[in-house]
């Protein structure tokens, strides 16, 4: 959000940077409104996966746009792309990863540690946000705009993989039920590791 106007200035879009920032802010409201509807109808993991995919795609589009522009391609007919990409990212975050990360965390954590854990999570999130704000201009200046957005797309990809392979589905589950699901997954991983170790020992013998 801090660099919305600057991003539009760098992209040199057909829309003025100030107007672009206003549109993105409006899209954030739309994303938050969609979250109030979709959270009640869809599973948590489904929304998280869709959100991560959309955010990653928008970052990649932004990165490709800047890469081609830096290579001096004529992108005058694609001047609308940065606005669409940034608006799409804002909607995707507002309806998915933004609110659901904390909702899922509360549904996973035991009540006796939830308050402390969420406070620590907020400190980490704000700390990472501060680092991102400080690092973004450096990476953009030293390596190019496209590198910054490829890196952000990479973090979205890691979040997507974490959601698919680690995050449990918590909608409609009690904390006890969620813990049982996590323990079952952990047992399956342990059993698979044991089978691999047994096969390795057998082959060496």
From TrEMBL:
Coiled coil: none annotated. SUPFAM superfamilies: MFS general substrate transporter. It is found in: Membrane. The chain crosses the membrane at residues 20-42, 47-68, 80-106, 113-136, 148-167. GO terms for molecular function: transmembrane transporter activity. The keyword Transmembrane applies. Gene3D superfamilies: MFS general substrate transporter like domains (1.20.1250.20). One of its GO terms (cellular component) is membrane. It holds the Pfam family Sugar_tr. It is a multi-pass membrane protein. It comes from the Eukaryota. Residues 1-171 form the Major facilitator superfamily (MFS) profile domain. Keywords: Membrane, Transmembrane, Transmembrane helix. PROSITE patterns: MFS (PS50850). This is Major facilitator superfamily (MFS) profile domain-containing protein.
């Amino acid at each position: 959000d801090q660099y919305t106007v600057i991003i539009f200035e760098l992209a040199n879009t057909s829309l003025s940077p100030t107007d672009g920032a206003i549109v993105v802010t409006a899209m954030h409201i739309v994303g938050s409104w969609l979250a109030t509807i979709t959270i009640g109808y869809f599973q948590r993991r489904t929304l998280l996966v869709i959100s991560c995919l959309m955010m990653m795609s928008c970052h990649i589009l932004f990165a490709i746009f800047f890469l081609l522009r830096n290579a001096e391609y004529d992108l005058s007919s694609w001047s609308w792309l940065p606005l669409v990409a940034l608006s799409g990212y804002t909607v995707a975050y507002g309806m998915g990863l933004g609110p659901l990360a904390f909702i899922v965390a509360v549904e996973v954590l035991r009540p006796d540690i939830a308050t402390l854990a969420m406070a620590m999570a907020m400190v980490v999130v704000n700390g990472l946000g501060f680092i991102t704000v400080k690092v973004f201009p450096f990476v953009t200046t030293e390596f190019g705009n496209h590198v910054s957005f490829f890196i952000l797309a990479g973090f979205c990809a890691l979040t997507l993989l974490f959601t698919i392979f680690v995050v449990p589905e918590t909608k409609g589950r009690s904390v006890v039920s969620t813990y049982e699901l996590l323990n079952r997954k952990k047992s399956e991983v342990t059993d698979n590791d044991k089978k691999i170790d047994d096969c390795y020992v057998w082959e060496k013998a």
